[in-house]
Amino acid sequence: MMYGEGSEPLAIAHRGGAALAPENSLAAFGLASALGLRYLETDIRVTADGQLVCFHDDTLDRVTSAAGPVRSKALRDLRRLRINGIEPIPTFDEALDAFPQQCFTVDLKDQAAIEPLVKSLRRKGVAQRVCIAGAWDGWLGQVRSEVPEVTSALGWRSLTALLTCAKTGLRPPR
Fold first, then answer.
1. Active-site residue numbers?
2. Could you tell me the CATH number of the domain that includes residue 154?
3. What is the pTM for the complete model shown?
């Protein structure tokens, strides 16, 4: 399946379907998929040992019993935690593997996540199922240069320029 094939609007489960189960969890992805959603949005963070996890916040404080930055913990430490006391924190590769028919919109939250993201995108059939979003234009450009077949949204700077042009009636720069 290619990301965004066709011209119809996309229904995307934000944070994997956070209204259905704890955000960015395999349970949320599963329930959203069971409802027929083909597109799942997740946020990715990098751990202290360079692993990508599906997690929105910079810190663990809001949705786990732990405190501090996600990037300060190794994956083995995060494995002991539960989102909202219920669901484990999945890796990005676990989410991709658990839902091979779904496409993912990935909010790239941290420049340090680029290298492990590129590694995941180079896995067979993954790049075609992913759209990278929520990042600086340079980060998106770096990922696209290393994995040309991946789709990306507009970066923050490009989106801001487009909105400014729309409000002022100017043509966007090329």
1. 14, 56
2. 3.20.20.190
3. 0.89
